[in-house]
Structure to design on (77 residues):
């Protein structure tokens, strides 16, 4: 799958792509929970752990805070 960095790029891809060309069997559903985020969490982490989390978030193409939130949601589900 191509990396789609904007809504416009995603819209162009969906409008023109032939999805039969792609193997989508490895895809997993991803929940989109749109809830207001009014509470905050501050924590201290060892620099190696923070760097590893930032690298993993970057590899997934999402902000680090969103990645941490995903991990927390998965842990309590």
């Amino acid at each position: 799958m191509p990396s789609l960095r904007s809504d416009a790029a995603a819209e162009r891809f969906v409008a023109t792509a032939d999805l039969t060309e792609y193997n989508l069997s490895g895809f997993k559903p991803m929940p989109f929970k749109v809830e207001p985020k009014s509470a905050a969490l501050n924590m201290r982490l060892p620099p190696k752990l923070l760097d590893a989390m930032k690298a993993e978030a970057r590899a997934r193409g999402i902000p680090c805070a969103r990645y941490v939130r995903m991990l927390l949601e998965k842990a309590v589900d």
In short: DSSP finds three helices and no strands in the chain. The CA atoms of residues 33 and 56 lie 21 Å apart. The mean pLDDT is 89. Residues 7-76 form one domain.
